[in-house]
Specification:
Length: 423
Amino acid sequence: MLFVYFGTLFYWLIGRFFAQAPRYLTKSQINREESAVNTTNVKAGFEYSDCYLHDNDARFVFNFIRSSLNFGGIAANYVESTQAKRENDLWVVDAKDTMGNTPFKIRAKALVNACGPYVDQHNQLTQQKTTHHHVFSKGIHLVVDRITDHKRVLTFFASDGRLFFVIPMGPKTCIGTTDTQVDSPETEVTDADREFVLGNANSLLNLKRPLTKADIIAERCGVRPLAITGVGGKADWVKLSRKHAIDVIPKDRHLSIFGGKLTDCLNVGDEVVDELAKLGIPVPYPDRKWYGEPHDTIKDDYLHQAKLMGLDTLTNPSSSEPLSVRFWRRYGANAIGLLENIRNDPQEAELLIENAEYTRCEIEQAAQREMITKLEDFLRRRSKISLVVRREDLKNSQGLMEACHILFGDLAQEKYEEYFREN
Ligand SMILES: Cc1cc2nc3c(=O)[nH]c(=O)nc-3n(C[C@H](O)[C@H](O)[C@H](O)COP(=O)(O)OP(=O)(O)OC[C@H]3O[C@@H](n4cnc5c(N)ncnc54)[C@H](O)[C@@H]3O)c2cc1C
Protein backbone atom coordinates (compact mmCIF):
# COMPACT_ATOMS: atom_id res chain seq x y z
CA MET A 1 0.00 0.00 0.00
CA LEU A 2 2.87 2.35 0.79
CA PHE A 3 4.19 1.76 -2.73
CA VAL A 4 0.85 2.83 -4.24
CA TYR A 5 0.75 5.84 -1.91
CA PHE A 6 4.20 6.94 -3.18
CA GLY A 7 2.72 6.54 -6.68
CA THR A 8 0.03 9.11 -5.80
CA LEU A 9 2.70 11.50 -4.48
CA PHE A 10 4.52 11.16 -7.80
CA TYR A 11 1.25 11.76 -9.70
CA TRP A 12 0.69 14.89 -7.60
CA LEU A 13 4.21 16.05 -8.41
CA ILE A 14 3.84 15.60 -12.18
CA GLY A 15 0.52 17.49 -11.87
CA ARG A 16 2.68 20.34 -10.46
CA PHE A 17 0.84 20.23 -7.09
CA PHE A 18 -2.33 21.57 -8.75
CA ALA A 19 -4.68 19.36 -6.68
CA GLN A 20 -4.71 18.81 -2.91
CA ALA A 21 -1.87 16.72 -1.47
CA PRO A 22 -2.54 12.94 -1.20
CA ARG A 23 -3.20 11.61 2.32
CA TYR A 24 -2.25 8.20 3.67
CA LEU A 25 -5.20 6.79 5.70
CA THR A 26 -5.02 4.13 8.38
CA LYS A 27 -7.88 1.65 8.77
CA SER A 28 -9.33 3.60 11.73
CA GLN A 29 -9.11 6.88 9.79
CA ILE A 30 -11.07 5.28 6.92
CA ASN A 31 -13.71 4.05 9.40
CA ARG A 32 -14.00 7.54 10.84
CA GLU A 33 -14.05 9.49 7.59
CA GLU A 34 -15.96 7.14 5.24
CA SER A 35 -18.04 4.62 7.10
CA ALA A 36 -19.46 3.33 3.78
CA VAL A 37 -16.19 1.45 3.18
CA ASN A 38 -16.07 -2.12 4.47
CA THR A 39 -12.63 -2.25 6.10
CA THR A 40 -12.76 -5.92 7.18
CA ASN A 41 -9.99 -6.88 4.75
CA VAL A 42 -8.38 -3.45 4.56
CA LYS A 43 -4.95 -2.59 5.98
CA ALA A 44 -4.82 1.06 4.90
CA GLY A 45 -5.82 3.38 2.06
CA PHE A 46 -5.14 6.81 0.67
CA GLU A 47 -6.96 9.85 -0.59
CA TYR A 48 -5.89 11.93 -3.56
CA SER A 49 -7.55 14.62 -5.64
CA ASP A 50 -8.15 14.73 -9.37
CA CYS A 51 -10.50 16.34 -11.88
CA TYR A 52 -14.08 15.15 -11.86
CA LEU A 53 -16.98 15.53 -14.33
CA HIS A 54 -19.78 16.76 -12.11
CA ASP A 55 -22.57 16.53 -14.67
CA ASN A 56 -21.63 13.65 -16.93
CA ASP A 57 -19.45 12.83 -19.90
CA ALA A 58 -22.25 13.60 -22.39
CA ARG A 59 -22.68 17.15 -21.03
CA PHE A 60 -18.91 17.65 -21.04
CA VAL A 61 -18.73 16.65 -24.70
CA PHE A 62 -21.78 18.72 -25.67
CA ASN A 63 -20.21 21.83 -24.11
CA PHE A 64 -17.32 21.48 -26.59
CA ILE A 65 -19.81 21.27 -29.46
CA ARG A 66 -21.77 24.25 -28.18
CA SER A 67 -18.68 26.43 -27.82
CA SER A 68 -17.39 25.43 -31.25
CA LEU A 69 -20.73 26.69 -32.66
CA ASN A 70 -20.22 29.97 -30.77
CA PHE A 71 -16.90 30.38 -32.59
CA GLY A 72 -18.22 29.69 -36.08
CA GLY A 73 -17.94 25.90 -36.19
CA ILE A 74 -20.66 23.86 -37.89
CA ALA A 75 -22.02 20.77 -36.14
CA ALA A 76 -25.08 18.68 -36.90
CA ASN A 77 -26.53 15.74 -35.01
CA TYR A 78 -28.45 12.79 -36.50
CA VAL A 79 -26.28 12.87 -39.63
CA GLU A 80 -24.64 9.63 -40.74
CA SER A 81 -21.82 9.19 -43.20
CA THR A 82 -22.84 6.24 -45.36
CA GLN A 83 -19.99 6.41 -47.89
CA ALA A 84 -17.20 8.76 -48.94
CA LYS A 85 -15.13 8.96 -52.12
CA ARG A 86 -12.22 11.02 -53.43
CA GLU A 87 -13.22 13.24 -56.39
CA ASN A 88 -10.80 15.81 -57.87
CA ASP A 89 -8.69 16.08 -54.75
CA LEU A 90 -11.74 16.44 -52.51
CA TRP A 91 -13.67 14.05 -50.29
CA VAL A 92 -17.33 13.78 -51.20
CA VAL A 93 -19.28 12.25 -48.33
CA ASP A 94 -22.69 10.67 -48.84
CA ALA A 95 -24.44 11.91 -45.73
CA LYS A 96 -27.90 10.99 -44.48
CA ASP A 97 -30.15 13.02 -42.22
CA THR A 98 -31.36 10.09 -40.14
CA MET A 99 -34.39 11.96 -38.80
CA GLY A 100 -35.90 12.65 -42.21
CA ASN A 101 -34.00 9.94 -44.15
CA THR A 102 -32.82 12.64 -46.54
CA PRO A 103 -29.49 12.06 -48.34
CA PHE A 104 -27.12 14.94 -49.08
CA LYS A 105 -23.44 15.46 -49.89
CA ILE A 106 -20.63 17.09 -47.91
CA ARG A 107 -17.43 18.15 -49.66
CA ALA A 108 -14.20 18.42 -47.70
CA LYS A 109 -10.45 18.86 -48.26
CA ALA A 110 -9.68 16.18 -45.66
CA LEU A 111 -11.60 13.45 -43.88
CA VAL A 112 -11.10 12.80 -40.17
CA ASN A 113 -12.59 9.45 -39.21
CA ALA A 114 -13.56 9.94 -35.52
CA CYS A 115 -16.30 7.28 -35.54
CA GLY A 116 -15.15 5.81 -32.20
CA PRO A 117 -15.84 2.06 -32.18
CA TYR A 118 -16.99 2.30 -35.83
CA VAL A 119 -13.68 3.64 -37.20
CA ASP A 120 -12.71 0.32 -38.86
CA GLN A 121 -16.19 -0.05 -40.35
CA HIS A 122 -16.01 3.42 -41.93
CA ASN A 123 -12.48 2.78 -43.22
CA GLN A 124 -13.80 -0.32 -44.97
CA LEU A 125 -16.41 1.81 -46.72
CA THR A 126 -13.75 4.25 -47.91
CA GLN A 127 -11.11 1.54 -48.53
CA GLN A 128 -8.53 3.11 -46.24
CA LYS A 129 -5.82 0.69 -45.10
CA THR A 130 -4.55 1.57 -41.62
CA THR A 131 -1.79 0.30 -39.32
CA HIS A 132 -4.08 0.29 -36.30
CA HIS A 133 -7.40 -1.40 -35.73
CA HIS A 134 -9.79 -1.79 -32.79
CA VAL A 135 -10.63 -4.47 -30.31
CA PHE A 136 -13.49 -3.81 -27.91
CA SER A 137 -13.81 -3.89 -24.13
CA LYS A 138 -17.34 -3.73 -22.76
CA GLY A 139 -17.88 -1.68 -19.59
CA ILE A 140 -21.09 -1.22 -17.65
CA HIS A 141 -22.13 0.97 -14.71
CA LEU A 142 -25.22 0.75 -12.50
CA VAL A 143 -26.92 3.75 -10.87
CA VAL A 144 -28.42 3.20 -7.41
CA ASP A 145 -29.67 5.36 -4.55
CA ARG A 146 -27.00 7.46 -2.86
CA ILE A 147 -24.59 5.25 -0.91
CA THR A 148 -22.75 7.94 1.04
CA ASP A 149 -23.35 11.63 1.64
CA HIS A 150 -19.67 12.35 1.16
CA LYS A 151 -18.78 13.71 -2.25
CA ARG A 152 -15.62 11.70 -2.88
CA VAL A 153 -15.25 8.94 -5.45
CA LEU A 154 -14.43 5.65 -3.67
CA THR A 155 -12.00 3.37 -5.49
CA PHE A 156 -11.30 -0.30 -4.74
CA PHE A 157 -9.76 -3.32 -6.36
CA ALA A 158 -12.62 -5.58 -7.50
CA SER A 159 -12.64 -9.38 -7.32
CA ASP A 160 -11.00 -9.53 -10.79
CA GLY A 161 -8.13 -7.30 -9.60
CA ARG A 162 -9.26 -4.31 -11.65
CA LEU A 163 -10.30 -0.89 -10.37
CA PHE A 164 -13.87 -0.54 -9.14
CA PHE A 165 -15.50 2.85 -8.61
CA VAL A 166 -18.34 4.22 -6.46
CA ILE A 167 -19.01 7.63 -7.98
CA PRO A 168 -21.36 10.35 -6.68
CA MET A 169 -23.88 11.24 -9.40
CA GLY A 170 -26.04 14.16 -8.22
CA PRO A 171 -28.65 12.67 -5.89
CA LYS A 172 -27.57 9.07 -6.73
CA THR A 173 -24.44 6.88 -6.89
CA CYS A 174 -22.93 5.25 -9.98
CA ILE A 175 -21.03 1.98 -9.46
CA GLY A 176 -18.85 -0.07 -11.76
CA THR A 177 -17.23 -0.97 -14.01
CA THR A 178 -16.64 -4.20 -15.91
CA ASP A 179 -14.00 -4.93 -18.53
CA THR A 180 -14.99 -7.75 -20.89
CA GLN A 181 -13.62 -8.40 -24.37
CA VAL A 182 -16.43 -8.37 -26.95
CA ASP A 183 -16.42 -8.77 -30.72
CA SER A 184 -18.85 -6.02 -31.67
CA PRO A 185 -19.57 -2.43 -30.57
CA GLU A 186 -23.24 -3.32 -30.14
CA THR A 187 -23.59 -4.79 -26.68
CA GLU A 188 -25.99 -4.82 -23.76
CA VAL A 189 -25.92 -5.29 -20.01
CA THR A 190 -26.20 -8.97 -19.09
CA ASP A 191 -27.23 -10.57 -15.80
CA ALA A 192 -23.61 -11.64 -15.28
CA ASP A 193 -22.52 -7.98 -15.56
CA ARG A 194 -25.13 -6.91 -13.01
CA GLU A 195 -24.15 -9.68 -10.61
CA PHE A 196 -20.47 -8.77 -10.90
CA VAL A 197 -21.09 -5.10 -10.08
CA LEU A 198 -23.65 -5.70 -7.31
CA GLY A 199 -21.56 -8.50 -5.78
CA ASN A 200 -18.46 -6.34 -5.61
CA ALA A 201 -20.39 -3.37 -4.22
CA ASN A 202 -21.89 -5.59 -1.52
CA SER A 203 -18.53 -6.97 -0.43
CA LEU A 204 -16.54 -3.73 -0.65
CA LEU A 205 -19.10 -1.47 1.01
CA ASN A 206 -20.74 -1.31 4.42
CA LEU A 207 -24.39 -1.20 3.44
CA LYS A 208 -27.49 -1.32 5.63
CA ARG A 209 -28.72 -4.12 3.37
CA PRO A 210 -27.18 -5.72 0.28
CA LEU A 211 -27.95 -4.14 -3.09
CA THR A 212 -30.14 -6.21 -5.40
CA LYS A 213 -31.31 -5.82 -9.00
CA ALA A 214 -34.41 -4.03 -7.69
CA ASP A 215 -32.14 -1.18 -6.52
CA ILE A 216 -30.94 -0.42 -10.05
CA ILE A 217 -32.31 2.93 -11.22
CA ALA A 218 -30.48 3.03 -14.54
CA GLU A 219 -27.70 1.26 -16.41
CA ARG A 220 -24.88 2.44 -18.65
CA CYS A 221 -23.23 0.22 -21.20
CA GLY A 222 -20.54 0.95 -23.79
CA VAL A 223 -17.46 -0.39 -25.45
CA ARG A 224 -13.99 1.08 -25.09
CA PRO A 225 -12.36 0.82 -28.52
CA LEU A 226 -8.72 -0.14 -27.85
CA ALA A 227 -6.06 0.46 -30.49
CA ILE A 228 -3.93 -2.47 -31.61
CA THR A 229 -1.50 -2.81 -34.49
CA GLY A 230 -2.47 -5.44 -37.03
CA VAL A 231 -5.95 -6.81 -37.59
CA GLY A 232 -8.31 -8.28 -34.95
CA GLY A 233 -7.07 -11.32 -33.04
CA LYS A 234 -6.72 -11.66 -29.30
CA ALA A 235 -4.54 -9.06 -27.66
CA ASP A 236 -3.04 -9.33 -24.17
CA TRP A 237 -6.09 -7.77 -22.60
CA VAL A 238 -4.61 -6.59 -19.32
CA LYS A 239 -1.55 -5.00 -20.92
CA LEU A 240 -3.46 -3.33 -23.75
CA SER A 241 -2.85 0.42 -23.76
CA ARG A 242 -5.73 2.89 -23.47
CA LYS A 243 -3.71 5.43 -25.42
CA HIS A 244 -4.94 6.76 -28.73
CA ALA A 245 -3.25 6.41 -32.10
CA ILE A 246 -3.79 8.56 -35.20
CA ASP A 247 -3.17 6.95 -38.59
CA VAL A 248 -2.65 9.35 -41.48
CA ILE A 249 -2.85 8.51 -45.17
CA PRO A 250 -1.32 11.68 -46.67
CA LYS A 251 -2.09 10.97 -50.35
CA ASP A 252 -5.81 10.77 -49.53
CA ARG A 253 -5.73 13.45 -46.81
CA HIS A 254 -7.35 10.96 -44.46
CA LEU A 255 -6.97 10.61 -40.67
CA SER A 256 -8.33 7.88 -38.39
CA ILE A 257 -8.45 8.20 -34.60
CA PHE A 258 -8.13 4.91 -32.70
CA GLY A 259 -8.65 4.24 -28.98
CA GLY A 260 -7.96 6.96 -26.42
CA LYS A 261 -9.55 8.47 -23.35
CA LEU A 262 -11.94 11.36 -22.92
CA THR A 263 -9.50 12.98 -20.48
CA ASP A 264 -6.99 13.19 -23.32
CA CYS A 265 -9.38 14.84 -25.80
CA LEU A 266 -7.55 18.19 -25.98
CA ASN A 267 -4.27 16.44 -26.81
CA VAL A 268 -5.99 14.35 -29.48
CA GLY A 269 -7.48 17.56 -30.93
CA ASP A 270 -4.06 19.24 -30.97
CA GLU A 271 -2.52 16.26 -32.75
CA VAL A 272 -5.28 16.25 -35.38
CA VAL A 273 -4.71 19.98 -35.98
CA ASP A 274 -0.95 19.41 -36.38
CA GLU A 275 -1.48 16.53 -38.80
CA LEU A 276 -3.92 18.58 -40.88
CA ALA A 277 -1.41 21.45 -41.03
CA LYS A 278 1.17 18.97 -42.40
CA LEU A 279 -1.37 18.08 -45.13
CA GLY A 280 -1.60 21.75 -46.06
CA ILE A 281 -4.75 22.61 -44.11
CA PRO A 282 -3.67 24.97 -41.30
CA VAL A 283 -6.06 26.21 -38.57
CA PRO A 284 -7.35 29.62 -39.61
CA TYR A 285 -6.90 31.24 -36.15
CA PRO A 286 -4.09 29.37 -34.33
CA ASP A 287 -4.03 31.77 -31.36
CA ARG A 288 -7.75 31.74 -30.62
CA LYS A 289 -8.90 29.54 -27.76
CA TRP A 290 -12.50 28.42 -28.13
CA TYR A 291 -12.87 26.01 -25.21
CA GLY A 292 -12.46 26.20 -21.45
CA GLU A 293 -13.79 28.66 -18.89
CA PRO A 294 -14.44 32.25 -19.98
CA HIS A 295 -12.16 35.00 -18.69
CA ASP A 296 -12.15 35.66 -14.93
CA THR A 297 -13.67 39.13 -15.41
CA ILE A 298 -16.80 37.51 -16.93
CA LYS A 299 -16.99 35.06 -14.04
CA ASP A 300 -16.60 37.86 -11.50
CA ASP A 301 -19.40 39.81 -13.17
CA TYR A 302 -21.64 36.72 -13.16
CA LEU A 303 -20.95 35.93 -9.50
CA HIS A 304 -21.51 39.56 -8.53
CA GLN A 305 -24.91 39.63 -10.27
CA ALA A 306 -25.87 36.24 -8.78
CA LYS A 307 -25.01 37.50 -5.30
CA LEU A 308 -26.89 40.80 -5.70
CA MET A 309 -30.11 38.99 -6.70
CA GLY A 310 -29.71 36.31 -4.01
CA LEU A 311 -29.69 33.52 -6.60
CA ASP A 312 -28.53 30.83 -4.18
CA THR A 313 -31.46 31.45 -1.83
CA LEU A 314 -33.67 30.14 -4.68
CA THR A 315 -31.82 26.79 -4.74
CA ASN A 316 -34.22 23.91 -4.16
CA PRO A 317 -33.36 22.15 -0.84
CA SER A 318 -33.04 18.81 -2.70
CA SER A 319 -30.22 20.17 -4.91
CA SER A 320 -26.70 18.87 -4.45
CA GLU A 321 -25.11 22.32 -4.97
CA PRO A 322 -26.04 26.05 -5.09
CA LEU A 323 -27.59 27.34 -8.32
CA SER A 324 -24.78 29.84 -8.94
CA VAL A 325 -22.20 27.02 -9.02
CA ARG A 326 -24.26 24.76 -11.25
CA PHE A 327 -25.23 27.43 -13.76
CA TRP A 328 -21.62 28.57 -14.23
CA ARG A 329 -20.28 25.05 -14.67
CA ARG A 330 -22.94 24.09 -17.19
CA TYR A 331 -23.30 27.30 -19.21
CA GLY A 332 -20.27 29.54 -18.58
CA ALA A 333 -20.93 33.06 -19.90
CA ASN A 334 -24.42 32.05 -21.05
CA ALA A 335 -25.43 31.65 -17.41
CA ILE A 336 -25.74 35.46 -17.32
CA GLY A 337 -28.83 35.21 -19.54
CA LEU A 338 -30.40 32.81 -17.03
CA LEU A 339 -29.99 35.41 -14.27
CA GLU A 340 -31.88 37.90 -16.42
CA ASN A 341 -34.75 35.41 -16.89
CA ILE A 342 -34.95 34.71 -13.15
CA ARG A 343 -34.91 38.41 -12.30
CA ASN A 344 -37.91 38.89 -14.62
CA ASP A 345 -39.74 35.90 -13.19
CA PRO A 346 -38.46 34.04 -10.07
CA GLN A 347 -40.54 30.98 -11.09
CA GLU A 348 -37.90 30.39 -13.75
CA ALA A 349 -35.63 29.09 -10.95
CA GLU A 350 -38.09 26.35 -9.99
CA LEU A 351 -37.15 22.71 -10.54
CA LEU A 352 -39.34 21.29 -13.27
CA ILE A 353 -38.74 17.55 -12.87
CA GLU A 354 -38.37 16.07 -9.38
CA ASN A 355 -34.78 15.04 -8.49
CA ALA A 356 -33.58 16.20 -11.89
CA GLU A 357 -31.61 19.35 -10.89
CA TYR A 358 -32.95 21.25 -13.91
CA THR A 359 -34.79 24.56 -13.58
CA ARG A 360 -37.39 25.93 -15.96
CA CYS A 361 -35.05 28.60 -17.40
CA GLU A 362 -32.39 25.97 -18.14
CA ILE A 363 -34.88 23.95 -20.16
CA GLU A 364 -35.93 27.07 -22.06
CA GLN A 365 -32.29 27.76 -22.83
CA ALA A 366 -31.74 24.12 -23.86
CA ALA A 367 -34.65 24.42 -26.33
CA GLN A 368 -32.96 27.37 -28.01
CA ARG A 369 -29.27 26.45 -27.86
CA GLU A 370 -28.76 22.73 -27.41
CA MET A 371 -29.78 20.99 -30.66
CA ILE A 372 -32.46 18.89 -28.97
CA THR A 373 -34.26 16.79 -31.54
CA LYS A 374 -35.53 13.91 -29.44
CA LEU A 375 -36.48 13.79 -25.76
CA GLU A 376 -33.57 11.38 -25.25
CA ASP A 377 -31.18 14.14 -26.30
CA PHE A 378 -32.33 16.19 -23.35
CA LEU A 379 -32.73 13.39 -20.80
CA ARG A 380 -29.50 11.54 -21.54
CA ARG A 381 -27.17 13.51 -23.81
CA ARG A 382 -27.44 17.05 -22.40
CA SER A 383 -28.34 16.11 -18.83
CA LYS A 384 -28.13 13.01 -16.67
CA ILE A 385 -31.85 13.01 -15.83
CA SER A 386 -32.61 9.54 -17.24
CA LEU A 387 -29.69 8.16 -15.21
CA VAL A 388 -30.85 9.50 -11.85
CA VAL A 389 -34.65 9.35 -12.13
CA ARG A 390 -36.37 5.99 -12.44
CA ARG A 391 -38.18 5.47 -15.74
CA GLU A 392 -41.57 5.10 -14.02
CA ASP A 393 -41.06 8.27 -11.94
CA LEU A 394 -40.05 10.10 -15.09
CA LYS A 395 -43.10 8.87 -16.96
CA ASN A 396 -45.43 10.02 -14.18
CA SER A 397 -43.71 13.33 -13.61
CA GLN A 398 -45.95 16.35 -14.25
CA GLY A 399 -42.90 18.44 -15.08
CA LEU A 400 -41.71 16.18 -17.90
CA MET A 401 -44.70 17.00 -20.11
CA GLU A 402 -44.20 20.70 -19.35
CA ALA A 403 -40.54 20.30 -20.33
CA CYS A 404 -41.67 18.63 -23.58
CA HIS A 405 -43.88 21.62 -24.35
CA ILE A 406 -40.95 23.97 -23.84
CA LEU A 407 -38.61 21.79 -25.93
CA PHE A 408 -40.90 20.69 -28.76
CA GLY A 409 -43.98 22.96 -28.78
CA ASP A 410 -46.82 21.26 -30.68
CA LEU A 411 -44.81 18.02 -31.02
CA ALA A 412 -44.61 17.58 -27.22
CA GLN A 413 -46.93 14.56 -26.94
CA GLU A 414 -45.38 12.83 -29.96
CA LYS A 415 -41.82 13.26 -28.64
CA TYR A 416 -42.86 12.09 -25.15
CA GLU A 417 -44.42 8.90 -26.59
CA GLU A 418 -41.46 8.31 -28.91
CA TYR A 419 -39.08 8.36 -25.92
CA PHE A 420 -40.99 5.80 -23.86
CA ARG A 421 -41.54 3.60 -26.92
CA GLU A 422 -37.85 3.57 -27.88
CA ASN A 423 -36.38 3.35 -24.39
C1 LIG B 1 -17.29 1.86 -19.77
C2 LIG B 1 -16.40 2.95 -20.24
C3 LIG B 1 -15.67 3.65 -19.31
C4 LIG B 1 -14.82 4.68 -19.71
N1 LIG B 1 -14.15 5.39 -18.76
C5 LIG B 1 -13.36 6.40 -19.11
C6 LIG B 1 -12.69 7.19 -18.13
O1 LIG B 1 -12.83 6.95 -16.93
N2 LIG B 1 -11.90 8.20 -18.55
C7 LIG B 1 -11.75 8.50 -19.87
O2 LIG B 1 -11.05 9.44 -20.17
N3 LIG B 1 -12.38 7.78 -20.83
C8 LIG B 1 -13.17 6.74 -20.48
N4 LIG B 1 -13.81 6.02 -21.45
C9 LIG B 1 -13.47 6.27 -22.87
C10 LIG B 1 -14.22 7.42 -23.50
O3 LIG B 1 -15.61 7.22 -23.39
C11 LIG B 1 -13.78 7.48 -24.95
O4 LIG B 1 -12.40 7.74 -24.96
C12 LIG B 1 -14.44 8.59 -25.72
O5 LIG B 1 -15.83 8.43 -25.75
C13 LIG B 1 -13.90 8.60 -27.15
O6 LIG B 1 -14.52 9.64 -27.84
P1 LIG B 1 -14.65 9.62 -29.41
O7 LIG B 1 -15.27 10.91 -29.80
O8 LIG B 1 -13.32 9.26 -30.03
O9 LIG B 1 -15.60 8.40 -29.74
P2 LIG B 1 -17.15 8.22 -29.38
O10 LIG B 1 -17.47 8.90 -28.09
O11 LIG B 1 -17.42 6.76 -29.50
O12 LIG B 1 -17.87 9.01 -30.55
C14 LIG B 1 -17.91 8.52 -31.88
C15 LIG B 1 -19.14 9.12 -32.53
O13 LIG B 1 -19.12 8.81 -33.92
C16 LIG B 1 -20.46 8.53 -34.31
N5 LIG B 1 -20.43 7.72 -35.56
C17 LIG B 1 -20.06 6.44 -35.72
N6 LIG B 1 -20.19 6.08 -37.01
C18 LIG B 1 -20.65 7.16 -37.67
C19 LIG B 1 -20.98 7.41 -39.05
N7 LIG B 1 -20.84 6.49 -40.03
N8 LIG B 1 -21.46 8.66 -39.37
C20 LIG B 1 -21.60 9.63 -38.44
N9 LIG B 1 -21.27 9.45 -37.11
C21 LIG B 1 -20.81 8.21 -36.75
C22 LIG B 1 -21.04 7.76 -33.12
O14 LIG B 1 -22.46 7.78 -33.17
C23 LIG B 1 -20.46 8.58 -31.98
O15 LIG B 1 -21.30 9.65 -31.65
C24 LIG B 1 -14.67 4.98 -21.08
C25 LIG B 1 -15.43 4.27 -22.03
C26 LIG B 1 -16.28 3.26 -21.61
C27 LIG B 1 -17.08 2.52 -22.65
